[in-house]
């Protein structure tokens, strides 16, 4: 049986997954950030991405339901507050809806998710189900795409503000906030995985969990590209620009 990796070796393997598989490499994102999309394509992206954003608190609640450690629950619960909001803090979902508002999408229509692509809904629900069904260590490891998120958020802010006249600072507020939140979340999850993935079996499981999460994100962009870029085959019932 192979010897377990050291924590540093495990972290390097996790980061290599991001370098090879994170969805910033997808052609759709390169088009989006490079100003190569029209208004309707940006609308389609924001509408579909809402499906994912709105599912994050459900995913985190599913994880918390399995945590016996009170201190771990106390740490994790802020992720739900970050997205759902708490008190005067509106939360990330509301900030995302301000983006879709600014893109002239009817808020009620966005919230129903009726116009989302089937593949978007299936991919997002697969992620929620994964967290519900797998042990906490693997569920926490699946969140480690946050390690790579600040770079894509910074790229998105700069690219969209520069290239689209219909995007302004008000509409990129979600991404600005995640520049601080994502590193905090990722650092905690990485520390937890480094400390708790000790056996070769556990280490391979957390690597597989992160690969699965990158697949979830990549699959959503595959669906968007197929429907709204090339070949442009929009499924029945999905959002049609214009």
How many structurally independent domains? 1
Computed over alpha carbons, the radius of gyration is 18 Å
Unreliable stretches, pLDDT < 50, 5 or more residues? Answer: none
Major sheet summary line? none
- Shape descriptor: globular
Number of helices: 11
- Give, in order, the helices and strands: HHHHHHHHHHH
Helix content: over 70%
Percent of residues in beta strands: under 5%
Spatial gap, N to C terminus: 58 Å
According to CATH, the homologous superfamily is Heme oxygenase-like
Look at the structure and give the CATH class: Mainly Alpha
The CATH architecture designation is: Up-down Bundle
Q: Mean of residue pLDDT?
A: 96
CATH topology grouping: Heme Oxygenase, Chain A
Q: In terms of structural class, how would the helical and strand content be classed?
A: mainly alpha
Number of extended strands: 0
């Amino acid at each position: 049986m192979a010897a377990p990796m050291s924590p540093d070796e495990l972290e390097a393997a996790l980061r290599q997954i991001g370098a090879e598989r994170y969805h910033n490499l997808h052609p759709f994102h390169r088009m989006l950030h490079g100003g190569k999309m029209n208004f309707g394509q940006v609308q389609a992206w924001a509408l579909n991405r809402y499906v994912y954003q709105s599912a994050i608190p459900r995913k985190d609640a599913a994880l918390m339901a399995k945590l016996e450690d009170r201190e771990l629950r106390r740490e994790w619960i802020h992720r739900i507050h970050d997205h759902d909001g708490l008190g005067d803090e509106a939360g990330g979902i509301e900030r995302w809806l301000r983006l879709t508002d600014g893109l002239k999408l009817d808020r009620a229509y966005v919230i129903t998710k009726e116009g989302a692509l089937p593949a978007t809904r299936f991919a997002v629900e697969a992620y929620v189900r994964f967290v519900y069904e797998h042990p906490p260590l693997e569920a926490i490891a699946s969140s480690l795409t946050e390690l790579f998120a600040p770079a894509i958020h910074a790229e998105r802010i700069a690219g969209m503000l520069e290239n689209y006249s219909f995007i302004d600072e008000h509409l990129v507020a979600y991404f600005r906030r995640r520049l601080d939140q994502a590193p905090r979340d990722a650092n905690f999850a990485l520390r937890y995985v480094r400390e708790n993935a000790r056996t070769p079996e556990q280490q391979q499981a957390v690597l597989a969990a992160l690969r699965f999460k990158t697949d979830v994100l990549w699959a959503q962009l595959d669906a968007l590209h197929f429907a709204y870029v090339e070949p442009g085959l929009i499924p029945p019932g999905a959002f049609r620009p214009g």
